[in-house]
Design brief:
This protein has 148 residues and is α/β, with parallel strands linked by helices. It has one domain (2-147). It has five helices and eight strands, in the order βαβαβαβαβββαβ. Helix 1 links the parallel strand 1 and strand 2. Helix 4 crosses helix 5. The longest helix is centred in the middle third of the chain and has 17 residues, at 79-95. It starts with a strand and ends with a strand.
Amino acid sequence: MRLVSACLLGIRCAWSGDDKCKNERAIELSRVEPLIPVCPEQSGGLPTPRAPQEIQGGTGEDVLNGKCKVMNKDGEDVTREFVKGAEETLKIAWQLNIKEFIAKSGSPSCGCGQIYDGSFSGRLIDGDGVTTALLRRNGIRIIPEEDL
């Protein structure tokens, strides 16, 4: 079993509330092996749809270390919800003894390798989202959606 960003399976949990993040390779994979869908942002208490969010001044690792915050486009601090969602996702991994996570690219929660820079301009920087950083810290292998 693996965890997977729920939006990749077409579950309408992305910030916009649509299924534009759907990944056909992830859907095909779910037909041949068990994938456990997770949406850390919903698990952290955020609604769907919701204002776009980005990490301000750093990466998911920096958020976990208390060095920066996650803010939405309306200027609201959603750091607490992001950290809570990451912790809930880690609990699921531990409870089910899951060692791999298929991550949604660019996401401030699930992003792997690159995330948006916090300017809401579409620019990317190197780094992981909050959930990906916490899972990686705890020995969970991260698989970017592009590698499916």
